[in-house]
């Protein structure tokens, strides 16, 4: 699976252009400051099914890294990667951003072929600058489990040191 | 404006408000006020029976509280809890948002909270806002 962050806006047409641009820029900065280049291999864990993929992004200008808050580079960069992964893996698209009290970052939707009804999902995202993603993923799954008004609840954690993406649903492998 | 455009707008507005809040900028309150107004517009456009309609109602109240505009949050809660078809759970959740905000205020101003109830202080603030100093004195 190729996750091309340059296509983030096409994957999620309701994402404002300026927000998409900033997310992708910060993802590039976060990956490049860890020594990675566009096209790098990425470990994927899509609802407990491990696989390998590659990650591409528009080359980031590292001279501008200091203009960005360090933590926001990790968190916002993770949002870009997770949103690309959740679209490529399951066809989810962004409806809107959620406020923090909704226990999730994004409301997503998925068209059901031949049905008028759309599925809705809450997605909570986090980024890890150093080390693995397992502990953070457990925390985020516990958080998103409280999100109301959705059919599915997902947590996505992106690791930048050794690129990895873990996307789990609270349904435990049944989030399709 | 259609609902899709409002969803795109609210995404951008929440994004800006979060970034300003994280930096401790005073203008975050203004940004949250904008979020609350867009959420209110979404709530007007979407029935409470729709998930996005319930999300917008919670969002309008929550953003008003984040903006420090308790009077607006209270007015929105009154409006949304008296709407026909509002699920009991949502009514209770919206009222809890106001209670939670009062608890945060009490924890922040512990000495004042020992002598005055937050609801009473807010009532006085509302009278001052609506009627000015003489209106408050006459109340």
What does this structure look like?
Chain A is α/β, with parallel strands linked by helices. Chain A has one domain (2-169). In chain A, 30% of the residues lie in helices and 31% in strands. Chain A is built from 4 helices and 8 strands. Chain A has an 8-stranded mixed β-sheet with strand order 1-3-2-8-7-6-5-4, sandwiched between helices. In chain A, helix 2 (17-32) crosses helix 3. The radius of gyration of chain A is 15 Å and the shape is globular. With 139 residues, chain B is mainly α. Chain B has 7 helices and no strands. The chains are: A alpha/beta (176), B mainly alpha (139). The A-B interface holds A 14-16, 18-19, 69, 72, 94-102, 107, 120, 148-150 and B 4, 7-12, 14-15, 18-19, 22-23, 35, 51-52, 54-55, 58-59, 62-63, 66, 93, 97.
Give the topology.
The complex is a heterodimer of chains A (176) and B (139).
Chain A: E1 2-4, H1 8-11, H2 17-32, E2 40-46, E3 49-56, H3 70-90, E4 93-97, E5 106-111, E6 118-128, H4 134-144, E7 152-159, E8 164-169
Parallel strand pairs in A: 1-3, 2-8, 6-7
Antiparallel strand pairs in A: 2-3, 4-5, 5-6, 7-8
Helix pairs in contact in A: 2-3
Chain B: H1 3-22, H2 28-45, H3 51-66, H4 70-81, H5 88-108, H6 110-115, H7 118-138
List keywords for this structure.
heterodimer, A: 176 residues, alpha/beta, 8 strands, 31% strand, globular, B: 139 residues, mainly alpha, 2 domains
Question: How many domains of chain B, as an integer?
Answer: 2
The class by helix and strand makeup of chain A works out as alpha/beta
Largest sheet of chain B: none
In CATH, the architecture of the largest domain in chain B is Alpha Horseshoe
Domains counted in the coordinates of chain A: how many? Answer: 1
Order of helices and strands of chain B: HHHHHHH
> Which percent range describes the beta-strand content of chain B?
under 5%
Amino-to-carboxy terminus distance of chain B: 42 Å
Shape of chain B: globular
The multimeric state of the shown protein is heterodimer
Q: Enter the CATH topology name of the largest domain in chain B.
A: Serine Threonine Protein Phosphatase 5, Tetratricopeptide repeat
DSSP helical segment count of chain A: 4
Mean pLDDT of chain B: 91
Question: Which runs of chain B of at least 5 residues are low in confidence (pLDDT < 50)?
Answer: none
Biggest interface found: A-B, 21 and 25 residues
